[in-house]
Design brief:
By secondary structure, the protein is α+β, with helices and mostly antiparallel strands. The chain has 16 helices and 26 strands.
Length: 617
């Protein structure tokens, strides 16, 4: 409905423009040709011709309508504050009002060449056009992002401030153009207020880009599982919240019917705003931004075996800086915050347990190194006999640290350490947090698949066994909202039985380099092409957060005079372009360029001053 209302407003504005063109001595038919009408209006107002091009940019054109309205009011001799406000907020109707106003005469903007209002000249005009220019750049070319999580450590790190190239795969036209400038899905200074209106919804459309998504590309995309969000628990998947509560209820009483429990839990979560907040649906372009490495592209057959990724049955090279959980068997409880900080191992990812020899299976527990809230979490999906067979004394301490092979090698050389070995979860060990969240597919982080990744035009058999792999694709992502259900031995698509399905778009499998600490496609499935945003290409600033580096990441002022290891700022990551997750510094070329620009500007100013003195003589 909102789209139709907006179309009516556009037509109303064209009608008003036709009346204004007649008043100004221009043929009225020119007002009915989109884009050209605003080119004519720009020339009439004595404004740059490129103004009309902004009118084809969704979202930004709404702001530009107000700019046109403001100038039209003045050009037709209606400079009162009341008229200027009306023209800026509702230009569509103002054009019509002005067209039927016999007192409105075209006088032009020449008397405003010397702006009578310093507020407009010095503040309003620059701010409006800065917002318009920045909105175009941010929406279609380059957008600034911050890395919030450690899923790509150490390729892209928490605290990296970077720019994302939206032309890498083609910029998307905003699907919800009515939004607060520079905000994503939430208003500034708020955690719950939406920053956008869904009165106008545009269909998905992508402009041509420089290339396509390839294996091992680092990609920024809209989080698919973020189509529904519990406002008070936005850092968790809404669907995983439901699954966890359902599993807890079934553990209490395994005789309950799972479908009935799922319905009851869904009703509970959706009717308990004091705990979960409002449950809201977000359009694709307003879902959270994630950044991961694309390990599988459309058409690939993907499998993870013992932590290694295989594409089309070929083992893939592990990213150079990939991280895993490593078990560290030590003689004593020797690891401190300083020790971890020195290795650049995040404290929140440091886990510890004291384990003694026993004839029974050892009980291995993990807890945050900082003590946490005392809630111990059993390590899932691991073969505990590995511990029992390798302990040397009853006083053995076992740490589980998330780190790179380089850090693991450093710890292994410590005299306090008996042994260091990588954690690999058991095959066929089901994890309810792993896609497709079905007992029929006992997959986990280290043993996943095989999974056929859909490609546009690919036809795939669909049955009651594999429908859980592609259900979200069929009912949500691929071709709008549809109803997919099972009825006995049949799969129903909008009530009609299907045995195969032809996919409408490409899909991708994204993983973090931080293999045991990443919420990625192993958790929530595949990423549709219409969710792909761009590729990170430049890190301009990088800093540590004190929560992750409590020793070196605290002081801001003191870090100005410290190196990257001891201070908060990662100086080596400043002004670097990103290539396949590796950073390449351009500090020297950047500084040289700035100095050249400064020098040329200074020389040019002196030249102009000299010419002025010569002309005076």
């Amino acid at each position: 409905m909102g789209n139709y209302i907006f179309l009516v407003l556009i037509l109303v504005s064209f009608f008003g423009l036709s009346k204004l063109f007649t008043k100004a001595g221009i043929e009225s038919w020119k007002a009915w040709i989109p884009v050209y009408n605003f080119y004519v209006l720009a020339k009439l107002l004595g404004k740059p011709a490129w103004w009309c091009l902004i009118m084809i940019v969704p979202g930004v054109n709404i702001l530009m309508y107000g700019v046109y309205g403001f100038n039209v009011a003045r050009a037709f001799n209606k400079p009162s504050n009341q008229d200027l406000l009306f023209a800026s907020i509702l230009p569509y109707f103002f054009f019509v009002k002005l067209g039927f106003d016999d007192t409105a005469k075209f006088v032009g903007l020449s008397k405003f060449t010397i702006e009578p209002s310093k507020l407009i000249k010095n503040w309003v005009d620059p701010i409006i056009f800065a917002v318009i220019a920045a909105s175009i750049i941010r929406g279609y070319f380059i957008e600034a992002f911050t890395i919030p999580t450690s899923s790509l450590e150490k390729s892209l790190m928490v605290g990296d401030f970077l720019f994302v190239n939206k032309f890498a795969y083609g910029p998307k036209i905003p699907q919800t153009p009515l939004s607060f400038p520079f905000a994503h899905h939430t208003l500034p200074l708020s955690e719950t207020k939406k920053s956008y209106l869904e009165w106008i919804k545009l269909p998905y459309f992508r402009l041509p880009g420089f290339g396509s998504v390839k294996n091992d590309d680092i990609v920024v995309f809209n989080y698919p599982d973020g189509d529904t969000v519990a406002i008070k628990q936005q850092n968790q998947s809404y669907y995983q919240i439901i699954r966890d509560i359902v599993d807890n209820e079934l553990e209490k009483d395994s005789t309950q019917n799972k479908i009935t429990v799922q319905k009851q839990v869904w009703e509970y979560v959706n009717s308990t705003p004091q705990q979960f907040g409002d449950i809201v649906a977000r359009p694709v372009d307003k879902r959270e931004h994630y950044v991961k490495r694309c390990v599988g592209i459309a058409g690939d057959n993907l499998e993870v075996r013992a932590g290694e990724v295989f594409i089309n049955d070929k083992k893939q090279t592990m990213p150079e800086k990939a991280q895993h959980h490593y078990f560290v068997k030590a003689k004593s409880n020797f690891i401190t915050l300083e020790y971890l900080d020195n290795l650049d191992v995040y404290v929140t990812e440091a886990l510890i347990a004291s384990v003694g020899l026993s004839n029974q299976k050892p009980t291995v527990f993990l807890e945050p190194f900082t003590g946490g809230n005392g809630r111990y979490i059993p390590l899932k999906n691991y073969d505990y006999t590995t511990f029992k067979n390798t302990f040397t004394t009853k006083d053995t301490f076992v740490y589980c640290l998330n780190m790179t092979p380089e850090s693991a090698a450093k710890i292994k050389s410590d005299p306090n350490v008996y042994q260091v070995f990588k954690r690999i979860d058991m095959d066929n060990a089901y994890d309810n947090g792993i896609f497709p969240h079905s007992n029929s597919y006992a997959w986990n982080n280290d043993n996943f698949g095989p999974l056929q990744i859909p490609k546009a035009g690919m036809t795939m058999p669909i049955d009651t066994h594999n429908i859980c792999l592609y259900e979200k694709v069929l009912n949500t992502y691929d071709d709008g909202i549809h109803q997919v259900t099972k009825n006995g031995a049949q799969v129903l698509y909008d009530g009609k039985p299907i045995t195969s399905y032809t996919f409408k778009q490409d899909y991708y499998f994204m993983m973090g380099d931080n293999r045991h600490n990443s919420a990625d496609s192993r958790s929530w499935g595949m990423v549709p092409y219409d969710h792909v945003v761009g590729s990170p290409f430049f890190v301009w600033f990088s800093m540590k957060y004190s929560e992750n580096n409590p020793v070196s990441g605290k002081s801001v002022i003191g870090s100005l005079f410290k190196n990257s290891k001891e201070g908060k700022f990662r100086w080596e990551r400043f002004l670097c372009y990103v290539d396949d997750g590796n950073l390449h510094s351009i500090k020297i070329p950047f500084i040289v360029t700035i100095l050249l620009i400064w020098g040329l500007n200074k020389w040019n100013n002196r030249r102009k001053l000299k010419l002025q003195k010569t002309s005076i003589k």
